[in-house]
Amino acid sequence: MMENLDLRAVPSTFIQSIDRALIIQKILRDSVPLHLQEICARTSLSPSTCHRILQMLVYRDFATQLDDRRYTVGPAVTAPLPVSDDLDALQESARPRMDRLAEEVGETCHLMVRTGSTVRVLVSSPGSLEPRVGSRENAVLPAATTSGGLALLAQMPDEWLIRVFYLQQAGRSSPVNEHFPTAADFQRTMERIRRDGFAQVSGLTERGVDAFGIALRGAEAVAPVALSVAAPTVRAATLSSSVTREAILRCAAEIEEQAPQTQGQAQAGTQAGIRTEPQPR
User: What pTM was estimated for this model as a whole?
Assistant: First the structure.
């Protein structure tokens, strides 16, 4: 049994499984990366119990397993999130519009905000078609592996993208290196997204999943926000159809109308420069 040094009274609603997960989370937060056996030694839990808890923490981004199999705190804890009343209001006003979009196109829709080189999913509305992409609400993901994240990164200056984002990842195991072997590859992707006005990816976030994402330029006064629609690769053609893209643009425009805007943003908006006709993959 784990040693309890907390002098506070144990709540009557005490749930052991949650308590164990929280203790492991605190250990990861306050320690260098640890192997499974080291975590077992600190908690007096069996390897099988520790492993099950760690797998759930990794699944929900509260922990990360490194290449050497050690565990450390995950992006759900370390990634900063801009907090403001405007962002909360945008999230709440966007939810019913995202639900309508998911119902209209039949695929799962995400609203995400970029913080540095990661994105956090604020709203995830599940699609009605089966099989469907699962909800990613509250997930923290590398921006370079999501369509919405790439659309937001493309808004950044080249100097930031190459020196801060790409070169910062060099020499480490990262999604950036995996999907973009050279800085030139990454820069070409950014140029294509700027030209097209959207990002469309296949298998970056998850194998067998395609996604289409756009940045909500009318919401820049709140935070760097993007909207994406994700579908199984077998239905990837849906993302390229003019019907789907027009529905995405309508939803984006409705969300932007509710967002605080800086002078001139109301005239710009997301719809400028985005192609709605099918494009070659």
Answer: 0.73
Give the model's pLDDT for residue 140: 85
Among residues 226, 90, 218, which one has the least CA distance to residue 154? Answer: 226
Please check whether residues 127 and 178 belong to one and the same domain: yes
Domain range enclosing 22: 16-77
SS (H, E, C) 120-134: EEEEEECCCCCCCCC
pLDDT per residue as tens digits for the range 46-79? 999 999 999 999 888 888 888 788 998 887 787 6
* Spatial separation of the C-alpha atoms in residues 41 and 35, rounded to whole Å: 10
> What confidence tier does 266 reach under pLDDT thresholds 50, 70, 90?
very low
Query: Please, which residues have CB within 8 angstroms of residue 182's CB and are 6 or more apart in sequence?
Result: none
| CATH value at residue 73 | 1.10.10.10
Choosing from 27, 45, 77, the residue where a domain stops is 77
Given pLDDT bands bounded at 50, 70 and 90, which one contains residue 43? Answer: very high
- 108-115: strand order across its sheet: 140-142, 118-125, 108-115, 225-232, 209-215, 199-202
CA distances from 13 to 5, 7, 17, 134 (A): 19, 17, 12, 31
Half-sphere exposure of 247 (CA within 13 A, CB side): 22
